[in-house]
What does this fold into?
Amino acid sequence: MATAHSLVLLDELGSATDPEEGAALAVAIAEHFRRIGTLTVISTHHTSLKVYAANTQGVLNAAVGFDEKTLQPTYDLQVGVPGASAGINIAQRLGLNTQIIDAARARLGTQTQDVARFLDKLHADLRELDRERRSTQMREADLNRELKRLEAEGANEQRQKTREYERKIESLLRDFEYQTREAVNAVQERAAQQKLSKQAEQRMAKLRREFKEQFDAGVVAHKTGADRDDPHARPHEIKHVSEGDTVKLKSLGRTAVVKRKLDDNTFEVEMGAMKMKIPRHDIAEVFVTGQARGAVSPVAAARSKGISVTVKEDLNVPVEINVIGQTVDQATTEVEKFVDRAFLAGMPRVRIVHGSGMGILRKALRQFLKGHPHVATVAEPPQNEGGAGATVVELRV
It folds into this structure.
Protein backbone atom coordinates (compact mmCIF):
# COMPACT_ATOMS: atom_id res chain seq x y z
CA MET A 1 0.00 0.00 0.00
CA ALA A 2 1.65 3.23 -1.18
CA THR A 3 1.70 6.19 1.25
CA ALA A 4 3.04 9.73 1.27
CA HIS A 5 6.39 8.26 2.37
CA SER A 6 6.62 5.80 -0.56
CA LEU A 7 8.64 5.98 -3.79
CA VAL A 8 6.87 4.59 -6.87
CA LEU A 9 8.72 3.88 -10.16
CA LEU A 10 6.61 3.13 -13.26
CA ASP A 11 8.22 2.30 -16.64
CA GLU A 12 6.19 2.85 -19.83
CA LEU A 13 2.96 3.17 -17.89
CA GLY A 14 -0.13 2.16 -19.98
CA SER A 15 1.90 0.76 -22.86
CA ALA A 16 0.60 -2.83 -22.87
CA THR A 17 -2.93 -1.99 -24.00
CA ASP A 18 -4.80 0.19 -26.43
CA PRO A 19 -2.93 3.54 -26.68
CA GLU A 20 -5.99 5.65 -25.86
CA GLU A 21 -7.07 3.41 -22.98
CA GLY A 22 -3.47 3.06 -21.83
CA ALA A 23 -3.02 6.83 -21.84
CA ALA A 24 -6.24 7.38 -19.91
CA LEU A 25 -5.25 4.71 -17.40
CA ALA A 26 -1.76 6.19 -17.02
CA VAL A 27 -3.17 9.66 -16.27
CA ALA A 28 -5.60 8.24 -13.71
CA ILE A 29 -2.82 6.30 -11.94
CA ALA A 30 -0.55 9.36 -11.87
CA GLU A 31 -3.35 11.50 -10.43
CA HIS A 32 -4.02 8.89 -7.74
CA PHE A 33 -0.46 8.90 -6.49
CA ARG A 34 -0.34 12.72 -6.67
CA ARG A 35 -3.34 13.05 -4.37
CA ILE A 36 -1.89 10.82 -1.61
CA GLY A 37 1.47 12.65 -1.92
CA THR A 38 3.55 9.71 -3.14
CA LEU A 39 6.84 10.55 -4.85
CA THR A 40 6.34 8.97 -8.30
CA VAL A 41 8.62 8.65 -11.33
CA ILE A 42 6.90 7.60 -14.60
CA SER A 43 8.48 6.95 -18.01
CA THR A 44 6.09 7.13 -20.95
CA HIS A 45 5.57 7.88 -24.62
CA HIS A 46 1.92 8.86 -24.18
CA THR A 47 1.27 12.45 -25.23
CA SER A 48 -1.75 12.65 -22.91
CA LEU A 49 0.46 11.95 -19.89
CA LYS A 50 2.91 14.66 -21.03
CA VAL A 51 0.05 17.18 -21.37
CA TYR A 52 -1.24 16.15 -17.91
CA ALA A 53 2.18 16.88 -16.40
CA ALA A 54 2.37 20.27 -18.12
CA ASN A 55 -1.09 21.34 -16.87
CA THR A 56 -1.11 19.90 -13.33
CA GLN A 57 0.47 21.58 -10.30
CA GLY A 58 2.95 19.36 -8.52
CA VAL A 59 3.75 17.33 -11.63
CA LEU A 60 6.86 18.06 -13.70
CA ASN A 61 7.91 16.99 -17.19
CA ALA A 62 11.48 15.89 -17.99
CA ALA A 63 13.19 14.48 -21.05
CA VAL A 64 16.43 12.70 -21.83
CA GLY A 65 18.31 14.03 -24.84
CA PHE A 66 18.61 11.96 -28.02
CA ASP A 67 20.92 12.68 -30.96
CA GLU A 68 18.91 11.95 -34.13
CA LYS A 69 22.05 12.11 -36.27
CA THR A 70 23.90 9.39 -34.42
CA LEU A 71 20.71 7.71 -33.13
CA GLN A 72 22.33 7.63 -29.68
CA PRO A 73 21.03 8.94 -26.34
CA THR A 74 22.98 11.92 -24.91
CA TYR A 75 21.99 11.17 -21.30
CA ASP A 76 21.38 14.92 -20.89
CA LEU A 77 18.41 15.38 -18.56
CA GLN A 78 16.27 18.40 -19.45
CA VAL A 79 13.89 19.21 -16.59
CA GLY A 80 10.72 21.16 -17.36
CA VAL A 81 10.12 20.06 -20.98
CA PRO A 82 8.46 16.89 -22.34
CA GLY A 83 10.39 14.53 -24.58
CA ALA A 84 9.57 14.08 -28.27
CA SER A 85 8.69 10.63 -29.65
CA ALA A 86 10.89 10.40 -32.72
CA GLY A 87 9.96 6.90 -33.89
CA ILE A 88 8.97 7.90 -37.46
CA ASN A 89 12.02 10.18 -37.79
CA ILE A 90 14.33 7.41 -36.59
CA ALA A 91 12.76 4.94 -39.00
CA GLN A 92 13.30 7.42 -41.82
CA ARG A 93 16.97 7.84 -40.90
CA LEU A 94 17.37 4.07 -40.72
CA GLY A 95 16.28 3.92 -44.38
CA LEU A 96 12.72 2.69 -44.16
CA ASN A 97 10.77 3.04 -47.40
CA THR A 98 9.64 6.61 -47.86
CA GLN A 99 6.15 5.52 -48.90
CA ILE A 100 5.81 3.74 -45.61
CA ILE A 101 7.11 6.82 -43.76
CA ASP A 102 4.65 9.08 -45.56
CA ALA A 103 1.78 6.70 -44.92
CA ALA A 104 2.68 6.57 -41.24
CA ARG A 105 2.70 10.33 -40.93
CA ALA A 106 -0.62 10.54 -42.81
CA ARG A 107 -2.22 8.22 -40.31
CA LEU A 108 -1.26 10.40 -37.38
CA GLY A 109 -4.09 12.60 -36.09
CA THR A 110 -3.89 16.32 -36.67
CA GLN A 111 -3.46 17.05 -32.93
CA THR A 112 -0.76 14.39 -32.59
CA GLN A 113 1.12 15.86 -35.56
CA ASP A 114 0.87 19.34 -34.06
CA VAL A 115 2.19 18.11 -30.74
CA ALA A 116 5.00 16.22 -32.43
CA ARG A 117 6.01 19.25 -34.50
CA PHE A 118 5.86 21.45 -31.39
CA LEU A 119 8.06 19.06 -29.42
CA ASP A 120 10.51 18.74 -32.32
CA LYS A 121 10.78 22.52 -32.54
CA LEU A 122 11.07 22.83 -28.76
CA HIS A 123 13.97 20.38 -28.60
CA ALA A 124 15.64 22.06 -31.58
CA ASP A 125 15.37 25.40 -29.77
CA LEU A 126 16.76 23.85 -26.63
CA ARG A 127 19.75 22.50 -28.55
CA GLU A 128 20.32 25.94 -30.09
CA LEU A 129 20.09 27.56 -26.68
CA ASP A 130 22.58 25.04 -25.34
CA ARG A 131 25.02 25.88 -28.16
CA GLU A 132 24.57 29.59 -27.48
CA ARG A 133 25.10 28.98 -23.78
CA ARG A 134 28.38 27.16 -24.43
CA SER A 135 29.44 29.90 -26.85
CA THR A 136 28.59 32.55 -24.26
CA GLN A 137 30.58 30.69 -21.62
CA MET A 138 33.57 30.56 -23.96
CA ARG A 139 33.30 34.30 -24.68
CA GLU A 140 32.94 34.98 -20.97
CA ALA A 141 36.06 32.93 -20.28
CA ASP A 142 37.93 34.88 -22.97
CA LEU A 143 36.72 38.17 -21.46
CA ASN A 144 37.82 37.06 -17.99
CA ARG A 145 41.27 36.18 -19.30
CA GLU A 146 41.51 39.54 -21.07
CA LEU A 147 40.32 41.35 -17.94
CA LYS A 148 42.94 39.61 -15.82
CA ARG A 149 45.59 40.50 -18.39
CA LEU A 150 44.55 44.17 -18.35
CA GLU A 151 44.46 44.17 -14.55
CA ALA A 152 47.97 42.72 -14.47
CA GLU A 153 49.18 45.36 -16.94
CA GLY A 154 47.45 48.09 -14.92
CA ALA A 155 49.00 46.81 -11.71
CA ASN A 156 52.46 46.80 -13.33
CA GLU A 157 51.93 50.33 -14.64
CA GLN A 158 50.72 51.49 -11.21
CA ARG A 159 53.75 49.92 -9.54
CA GLN A 160 56.05 51.65 -12.01
CA LYS A 161 54.35 55.01 -11.35
CA THR A 162 54.57 54.42 -7.60
CA ARG A 163 58.29 53.65 -7.85
CA GLU A 164 58.76 56.78 -9.97
CA TYR A 165 56.94 58.91 -7.37
CA GLU A 166 59.04 57.35 -4.62
CA ARG A 167 62.23 58.22 -6.50
CA LYS A 168 61.04 61.83 -6.98
CA ILE A 169 60.10 62.17 -3.31
CA GLU A 170 63.43 60.70 -2.25
CA SER A 171 65.26 63.16 -4.52
CA LEU A 172 63.27 66.09 -3.09
CA LEU A 173 64.01 64.95 0.46
CA ARG A 174 67.73 64.73 -0.33
CA ASP A 175 67.65 68.25 -1.80
CA PHE A 176 65.74 69.56 1.21
CA GLU A 177 68.16 67.88 3.61
CA TYR A 178 71.13 69.41 1.76
CA GLN A 179 69.59 72.90 1.75
CA THR A 180 68.70 72.60 5.44
CA ARG A 181 72.24 71.51 6.32
CA GLU A 182 73.69 74.40 4.31
CA ALA A 183 71.34 76.87 6.02
CA VAL A 184 72.31 75.55 9.47
CA ASN A 185 76.01 75.75 8.61
CA ALA A 186 75.55 79.32 7.40
CA VAL A 187 73.78 80.28 10.63
CA GLN A 188 76.51 78.63 12.70
CA GLU A 189 79.22 80.43 10.76
CA ARG A 190 77.51 83.80 11.17
CA ALA A 191 76.98 83.11 14.88
CA ALA A 192 80.65 82.24 15.32
CA GLN A 193 81.71 85.42 13.55
CA GLN A 194 79.38 87.62 15.59
CA LYS A 195 79.92 85.97 18.96
CA LEU A 196 83.10 87.79 19.88
CA SER A 197 81.90 91.24 18.83
CA LYS A 198 78.42 90.81 20.33
CA GLN A 199 79.63 90.66 23.96
CA ALA A 200 81.63 93.86 23.64
CA GLU A 201 78.79 95.54 21.76
CA GLN A 202 76.28 94.60 24.48
CA ARG A 203 78.41 96.06 27.24
CA MET A 204 79.05 99.29 25.34
CA ALA A 205 75.38 99.57 24.37
CA LYS A 206 74.25 99.20 27.96
CA LEU A 207 76.59 101.90 29.21
CA ARG A 208 75.71 104.26 26.34
CA ARG A 209 71.99 103.68 26.80
CA GLU A 210 72.01 104.33 30.55
CA PHE A 211 74.04 107.49 30.11
CA LYS A 212 71.80 108.92 27.36
CA GLU A 213 68.61 108.05 29.27
CA GLN A 214 69.78 109.89 32.35
CA PHE A 215 71.23 112.79 30.41
CA ASP A 216 68.21 113.33 28.10
CA ALA A 217 65.73 112.99 30.95
CA GLY A 218 67.61 115.55 32.98
CA VAL A 219 67.87 118.02 30.10
CA VAL A 220 64.18 117.84 29.23
CA ALA A 221 63.01 118.02 32.84
CA HIS A 222 65.14 121.10 33.43
CA LYS A 223 64.24 122.93 30.21
CA THR A 224 60.51 122.19 30.36
CA GLY A 225 60.22 123.02 34.05
CA ALA A 226 59.11 119.53 34.97
CA ASP A 227 61.20 119.72 38.17
CA ARG A 228 60.14 123.28 39.04
CA ASP A 229 58.89 123.80 42.62
CA ASP A 230 60.27 120.42 43.62
CA PRO A 231 62.96 120.97 46.25
CA HIS A 232 63.86 117.29 46.09
CA ALA A 233 63.92 117.14 42.29
CA ARG A 234 66.25 114.62 40.75
CA PRO A 235 66.71 115.25 37.02
CA HIS A 236 67.25 111.60 36.23
CA GLU A 237 64.03 110.37 37.93
CA ILE A 238 60.47 110.15 36.59
CA LYS A 239 58.19 112.47 38.57
CA HIS A 240 54.67 111.25 37.80
CA VAL A 241 53.93 107.53 38.29
CA SER A 242 50.39 106.25 38.89
CA GLU A 243 48.87 102.86 39.62
CA GLY A 244 48.09 101.00 36.39
CA ASP A 245 50.90 102.71 34.44
CA THR A 246 53.26 100.60 32.38
CA VAL A 247 56.86 101.44 33.20
CA LYS A 248 60.21 100.41 31.82
CA LEU A 249 62.82 99.30 34.35
CA LYS A 250 66.43 100.37 33.97
CA SER A 251 67.78 97.40 35.88
CA LEU A 252 66.05 94.75 33.75
CA GLY A 253 65.39 96.59 30.50
CA ARG A 254 61.83 95.19 30.51
CA THR A 255 58.38 96.67 31.05
CA ALA A 256 56.17 96.12 34.11
CA VAL A 257 52.78 97.32 35.40
CA VAL A 258 52.54 99.47 38.55
CA LYS A 259 50.17 97.75 40.99
CA ARG A 260 50.61 99.90 44.14
CA LYS A 261 52.41 102.99 45.34
CA LEU A 262 54.05 102.01 48.63
CA ASP A 263 55.47 105.49 49.31
CA ASP A 264 56.71 108.50 47.36
CA ASN A 265 59.78 106.68 46.07
CA THR A 266 58.81 102.99 46.20
CA PHE A 267 56.37 101.04 44.01
CA GLU A 268 55.12 97.49 43.71
CA VAL A 269 55.17 96.34 40.05
CA GLU A 270 54.09 93.19 38.27
CA MET A 271 56.08 91.67 35.39
CA GLY A 272 54.34 88.59 34.05
CA ALA A 273 53.74 86.25 36.99
CA MET A 274 56.40 87.99 39.13
CA LYS A 275 55.82 90.87 41.56
CA MET A 276 58.60 93.04 42.97
CA LYS A 277 59.34 96.31 44.74
CA ILE A 278 61.33 98.94 42.84
CA PRO A 279 62.64 102.44 43.69
CA ARG A 280 61.54 105.43 41.66
CA HIS A 281 65.00 105.92 40.15
CA ASP A 282 64.81 102.46 38.54
CA ILE A 283 61.99 103.70 36.28
CA ALA A 284 63.30 104.77 32.87
CA GLU A 285 59.95 105.44 31.14
CA VAL A 286 56.23 105.53 31.85
CA PHE A 287 53.71 104.52 29.19
CA VAL A 288 50.08 105.62 29.20
CA THR A 289 47.77 103.83 26.68
CA GLY A 290 50.70 102.92 24.44
CA GLN A 291 52.47 106.35 24.56
CA ALA A 292 55.51 106.99 26.70
CA ARG A 293 55.31 109.63 29.45
CA GLY A 294 58.26 111.31 31.09
CA ALA A 295 61.53 110.33 29.47
CA VAL A 296 60.15 108.24 26.60
CA SER A 297 60.82 110.87 23.93
CA PRO A 298 62.91 113.74 25.26
CA VAL A 299 63.22 115.30 21.81
CA ALA A 300 59.43 115.32 21.27
CA ALA A 301 58.77 116.62 24.79
CA ALA A 302 61.23 119.48 24.32
CA ARG A 303 59.92 120.41 20.91
CA SER A 304 56.32 120.41 22.23
CA LYS A 305 57.45 123.18 24.62
CA GLY A 306 58.95 125.23 21.79
CA ILE A 307 62.52 124.33 22.68
CA SER A 308 64.91 123.63 19.86
CA VAL A 309 66.74 120.38 20.58
CA THR A 310 69.24 118.77 18.22
CA VAL A 311 70.14 115.14 18.80
CA LYS A 312 73.48 114.10 17.44
CA GLU A 313 73.18 110.79 15.65
CA ASP A 314 75.15 107.97 17.24
CA LEU A 315 77.30 106.70 14.41
CA ASN A 316 77.98 103.50 16.37
CA VAL A 317 74.34 102.40 16.13
CA PRO A 318 73.79 100.21 13.05
CA VAL A 319 70.69 100.62 10.89
CA GLU A 320 70.12 96.87 10.76
CA ILE A 321 70.20 93.89 13.10
CA ASN A 322 70.33 90.20 12.16
CA VAL A 323 68.67 87.71 14.57
CA ILE A 324 68.49 84.67 12.29
CA GLY A 325 69.01 81.45 14.24
CA GLN A 326 68.01 82.91 17.63
CA THR A 327 65.08 81.80 19.76
CA VAL A 328 62.07 84.07 20.16
CA ASP A 329 63.17 85.19 23.63
CA GLN A 330 66.76 85.86 22.55
CA ALA A 331 65.69 87.73 19.44
CA THR A 332 63.08 89.79 21.32
CA THR A 333 65.69 90.91 23.86
CA GLU A 334 68.19 91.85 21.16
CA VAL A 335 65.59 93.71 19.06
CA GLU A 336 64.30 95.62 22.09
CA LYS A 337 67.81 96.86 22.92
CA PHE A 338 68.48 97.67 19.27
CA VAL A 339 65.28 99.72 18.90
CA ASP A 340 65.96 101.62 22.13
CA ARG A 341 69.49 102.52 20.96
CA ALA A 342 68.23 103.59 17.54
CA PHE A 343 65.49 105.71 19.11
CA LEU A 344 67.89 107.45 21.48
CA ALA A 345 70.28 108.03 18.58
CA GLY A 346 67.49 109.83 16.71
CA MET A 347 67.30 107.33 13.86
CA PRO A 348 64.01 107.48 11.93
CA ARG A 349 64.09 104.01 10.45
CA VAL A 350 65.74 100.62 11.12
CA ARG A 351 65.63 97.16 9.55
CA ILE A 352 65.44 93.79 11.33
CA VAL A 353 66.54 90.63 9.50
CA HIS A 354 64.90 87.52 10.98
CA GLY A 355 64.63 85.17 7.98
CA SER A 356 61.52 83.49 6.56
CA GLY A 357 61.65 79.93 7.90
CA MET A 358 58.36 78.78 9.44
CA GLY A 359 57.37 82.38 10.17
CA ILE A 360 57.31 81.93 13.97
CA LEU A 361 60.15 84.38 14.71
CA ARG A 362 58.80 86.93 12.18
CA LYS A 363 55.31 86.86 13.70
CA ALA A 364 56.56 87.13 17.29
CA LEU A 365 58.90 90.05 16.55
CA ARG A 366 56.32 92.02 14.56
CA GLN A 367 53.73 91.56 17.29
CA PHE A 368 56.25 92.77 19.88
CA LEU A 369 57.26 95.77 17.78
CA LYS A 370 53.66 96.89 17.24
CA GLY A 371 53.32 97.36 21.00
CA HIS A 372 56.68 99.05 21.51
CA PRO A 373 56.33 102.73 22.57
CA HIS A 374 59.18 103.92 20.31
CA VAL A 375 57.73 102.31 17.18
CA ALA A 376 55.42 104.23 14.86
CA THR A 377 54.87 101.65 12.12
CA VAL A 378 55.90 98.07 11.29
CA ALA A 379 56.02 96.99 7.64
CA GLU A 380 57.34 94.26 5.39
CA PRO A 381 59.94 95.56 2.88
CA PRO A 382 59.73 94.81 -0.86
CA GLN A 383 61.15 91.54 -2.14
CA ASN A 384 64.44 93.08 -3.26
CA GLU A 385 65.01 94.35 0.31
CA GLY A 386 64.30 91.07 2.08
CA GLY A 387 60.54 90.58 1.72
CA ALA A 388 59.10 88.26 4.37
CA GLY A 389 62.60 87.64 5.71
CA ALA A 390 62.92 91.16 7.15
CA THR A 391 60.88 93.89 8.89
CA VAL A 392 61.20 97.67 8.47
CA VAL A 393 60.45 99.77 11.56
CA GLU A 394 59.64 103.50 11.49
CA LEU A 395 60.53 105.11 14.85
CA ARG A 396 58.68 107.93 16.58
CA VAL A 397 60.30 111.36 16.56
Q: What stands out?
A: The longest strand covers residues 255-263.
